[in-house]
Amino acid sequence: MERVNFQAIEKKWQKKFEASRLHNKNGKKFYCLEMFPYPSGKIHMGHVRNYTIGDVIARFKFMKGFDVLHPMGWDSFGLPAENAARLNNLNPKKWTEQNIQTMKTQLKKLGLSIDWDLEISTCDVDYYKHQQEMFIDFYNAGLVSRKETYVNWDPVEKTVLANEQVINGKGWRSNAVVERKKLSQWFFNITKYSRELLKDLENLPGWPQKVKLMQKNWIGESIGCELDFKIKNENKKIRIFTTRPDTIFGASFIAISVDHEISKKFENDSKFKDFKDQCSKIGTTEEALANAEKIGFDTKLFVEHPFIENKILPIYVANFVLMDYGNGAIFGCPAHDQRDFDFAKKYELPIIKVVSENEDTSQNELKEAYTGNGKMINSSFLNGLNVSDAKNKIIEKIVLNKIGEKKTLFRLKDWGISRQRYWGCPIPMIYLEDGSVVPVDKSELPIKLPEDVNLSDSGNPLKNHPSWIKTVHKKTGKPALRETDTLDTFVDSSWYFIRFCSPKSKNPYDVKSTNHWMPVDQYIGGIEHAILHLLYSRFFMKAIKRCDEKITCSEPFKNLFTQGMVCHETYKDSDGNWLYPEEVKKINEKKAINKLKKTEVKIGASESMSKSKKNTIDPETMIKQYGADAVRWFILSDSPPEKDIQWSDTGVYSASKFLQKIWNLTNTVINAKKIKNDISRAKDFENKINFYGFKIDKAINNFQLNVAVAQFYEVYRYFNESISQSITQKTLSNGLIKILKLMLPFTPHLANECLQNLNCKDVDKWPEINSKVLENLEINFAVQVNGKTRDIILIKKDLSEKDVDKIARKSSKTSKYIIDKKIVKTIFIKNKIINYII
RNA sequence: GCCCUCGUGGUGAAAUUGGUAGACACAAAGGACUUAAAAUCCUUGCCCUUUUGGGAGUGCCAGUUCGAGUCUGGCCGAGGGCACCA
Q1: Nucleotide nearest residue A792, measured CA to C1'
Q2: Which terminus has fewer CB within 10 Å in chain A: N or C?
């Protein structure tokens, strides 16, 4: 048999793919998008999986007659470029551009149907100048603000560190102890959209439930009320927020945050200072904070209980009360909140039960807080009500007494977008001499990043630049200083999908194209972006719509698919160093040796491929060895796309063998001898091919690409068995064309080549699947006795109970169970089973 | 701690959504072809039986049903998200 020359075939077809587009003039639009990559240097298997899945969908939709938009770009701003540039004394721009070139060449070798005319790169001035314009629009629409927040400050590098750059409280490069420093930073007011972002999740049936739930929890709605407590002997009030106003009669203290206005009174008190120190020593990780002991500082101040005359409650400053949620103050009801319970135990505060599970009004000692439902006790006018009715009644009273109001809070915080970095989009704001901050005039855009920067000095290169920072306020002609912060790279990726609709437009987007192509019909990417990227993008869409009423789209991604990771075993040498798979020779499942040193290698668990553990497989090597089609075929087979997949060398090898068989089959069919046609055989053959077409089409629609691949193996086997039967060359050829067309989205090079050899003229058309033919097929039908399957009979579809019964009883396998027995009942389900109860 | 998802052969997984459990693939064992190897093809898969057959069986325990991998309740285990959010 002739071996398929996949290298020649792939080269030939990739040239054609580059020149062709997935456009169907009169077709319905379909925007297929995979999350664009960060140009880190080379593509990895994760990219291969992501983009192969996307390519199958894009090609499939195109063949089905859709007008498909399938673009690709580069998320090219970010910290790694800066680091790499420092390390190799390169310009970040050059480093990035080189990587893009390499990765683009690699992507083309996968045979993707990408429209490279639409390519964009976020570090391009042509891209980020529009972003600056949008920033100004957002600013003018009141969606940008400036606030003080804490950052991780590296005193040696004189720079702000990202959370992942802080290792055990020290800077990753300088190893200096990281300080918490308060900086004034820019924010997008995403919290203005909390309610909308939450509510609109309901309009996204095409999103995984899991992602929607994660976003829902992230936004974190809680419904409750605000309530004022009057401070005793002072003409002042403390406003608190609670979701349990029903437990007000169980209140035994007020707790406020360390940063609360009232806490400031004690700043010169040495005991308070000690307390503050103690709080800051607890640790910085969130888990440490959550499990930390609850401690408090007694202010010796009291408030009056709003509903119990002459009752007063002490005010404590407590480490577990957060300033940036609600009002930084709460009332503590120890009996029905675990934190309050712990606190009350420590400071010997009263624990008053006001909700009873079982109408027990006695005040037995509690071992832990009771947070469940029940009847109100000990609560004056609330007594006897259940929790939810009590909430309504007390809120009514609070409003009536004008001491508070109903309120809904969200956990979501505003999006901090300032980064003290060089390699990012400059924020188009300037500082005037009088201390005010204003946006630059739009006519002065773009604010270009200077290329002549010194990255080896510590601190922000933009701040260190001799001239870039200095500018002039256009309106007044007065000198001003530029903002040296650059934008978080999540901003870049929050609207690239809109830019793809009109990548050459002079404006950030062309309204007509945007309204035509948006929303993205199918978005595909990793689950790690479930919250931030997807939430920010949703915010951007809404913000753009607010700034421009001509935009009709309010949710950017109609359907979302999150694919799993690519995993591989890990290998460790006897000295504890990680080894690359190519350095290891496997003897069997549990044994492996170091190829060079011949020493034994420890085989570790299969984990997501990562450079640090060296369990990576280079896609380019695989493509060279087995061909792009085989790599694509393998990565789509075996595991469902949403789950993790194990990379296996034997797997990709067997994939290539199967593709060779398809090639052989094509040659066999082309050279098939003329034989007499057996009409009924030919009809059965056509029906069966049609049936597989139906199953494959359905599997792709359901994103069950692994199931589709399995169907191809089956249909191949069936086809191979049919060749020797009395079926004409023409029938065989038509059948194979059908199969190859179904295969085209998976293995575009091989399928195109074979189709060409079979003289197929309408390669781009999805084969017609005749659903009527399906009905004539014979089906396997189960015969059960007492619910146990005793026989499987082959019958015509849609046979009546009477006819099936006749055949079923005759079956020797069944009859021995029912002979001499009285059949009490017969259950018949058309086309499925008949069940005799004896 | 709270929330969510998932448990099917040696492995990755299918299962028409309550109706043939294990399709398809990897690995293993055995066999066919071959002087031999590679390649290719076939068989097996847990228990009993020489075979024909039969039985058990989808994490564990119960329940609903003629019939449960699928539905309900409880338990065990794995993974993920959130984390003092009042």
Answers
A1: B20
A2: N
